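=== Structure Prediction Worksheet ===
Name of assembly: unnamed complex
Input type: mixed (protein and possibly other molecules)
Chain count: two
Listed entries:
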Amino acid sequence: MLLKGIKTKEKLIETFLLACAAVSVLTSIGILWVLFTESMIFFRHVSIVEFLTGTEWTPLFAEKKFGILPLVSGTVLTSLIAIAVALPLGLTIAIYINEYAPKSFRRIVKPVLEILAVVPTVVYGYFALMVVTPFLQKWIPGMSGFNALSPGIVMGIMIIPFISSLSEDALFAVPKSLREASYGLGATKFQTSFKVLLPAASSGIIMSVILAISRAVGETMIVAIAAGQQPRLTANPLVPIETITTFIVQVSLGDVVQGSLEYQTIFAAGIALFVLTFALNNLSFWMKKRLQEKYE
Amino acid sequence: MSKLSKSNSSTSMMMDKMFRYFGLACTFFALMILAFFLIKLLSEGASRIDWTFLSSFPSRSPEKAGIIVPLVGSFYILALTLVIAIPLGVFSGVYLEEYGRKSKLNALIEINIANLAGVPSIIYGLLALEIFVRWLGLGKSLLAGALTLSLLILPVIIVATREALKAVPKTIREASYALGGTKWQTILHQVLPAASGGILTGVILAMSRAIGESAPLIVIGAMLYISSLPSTPLDDFSVLPIQIFNWLSRPQPGFIINASAAIIILLVIILILNGLAIYLRNRWQKKVNW
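=== Predicted Assembly ===
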């Protein structure tokens, strides 16, 4: 009897724990469901073709146009600038820490660099607006107070630890034998790093870069503060632009009527953002799996 | 060694040397930027911080404005978030690590958590706007905000819990089973206490993430201007990052100084939390010598 009671209790507890774990599955289903149903309402009024190929985004104006390309171009532009800053710096730091620096240096510098990733993004927005933009304006006359360049650079600084830490882990995971073989042949550290370790760790490094891009694409506050809120289909980094995330913030701050078409646009923008980051994240998981298979 | 180096060209030796300095320069460049930002911040805002700034209500004139409302809001929402997210996250972690057999369901939950960790925070805001604010009718309340942040930090807590549970050796479990303990008794009385240090570290890191978050809270409609302290979980609220964002979007220079001062306070809180996490991690690693 007693034993049976215990068994029932154990079973109940297991079911309860499973229910807790199910919350995260429900969250995913919820995200997909909300984005899908709300943007379906949006797409009843706006054709998907217009949404995907239109070059003007003016849902808050009297004459409404719903082409998402200006928001996508703003997002891509700031993310590309961020990667252009973070990739060379992050990768050089990873190689330096992994191959050149003494162990004690690695132990101190790695966590200090990771501070860059815990600073809230609203704080980076402040730096972009108050420090980097005024500095750049001194060198680039005619640069607007809101632009893609400054938040892009600051975003790049923010994602340096993503690339440096994850790439360093990938370099560290390269089997010792490869490194020793290279040194045994008389190669320098530079040659070993670039001709042996880097190719061997390439999928891990690409994974880190993709994760960093995904982070930049979804980044909100830096661009909302420093990039301006003017959707513009341009590759010019010196003029105000708007990203997908900034648009969602802009609508949330204003007093748009719930249930109106303007209001639905944030879900349509949201699904575009979700698809973009989901694809990037899964590409990086796939890379990680390939990496694991290689060394096991 | 000298023979070996002769066999390599002098150009590659030079490249090697140059890269050594270049790498050092890059590393210090990143650190210097961090330092430069902090100095700039301190010079702008440090003198603004005093008791009146901390304890004043918002105001239309920057000299009179203070951060008591967002400060209390931040702590209030953090406390609520932890009450919701810690049990959910720890129990999920326990299920996945201790019960989850290699089933298809378990694999699905795992892929799902990895994916959730990569979803931009603003998307969580859209989810919360529909489910918590509109469906459950919670409005733009503290509770709606706390639920949003809970979902956001859940993956962090789950992953930390699993890592901590993994580090508990099999022998502890086997000893408990041998004494007749059931699975849940073993987990509750042996495994979880042994893993508590690691779980706590993860929870604190999740806290520092939650307290700096603003985008999803803006989406659910957290107030930019609010003049009374929240007293129940259903009251409207503001948090520090949103107050900073609000001040940054004002043209008057006085508000920029206020924003700098508020950022300093926010960063101090986050650095304390991270320092605590590092301290706990080190202490835990020292104490646990299986």
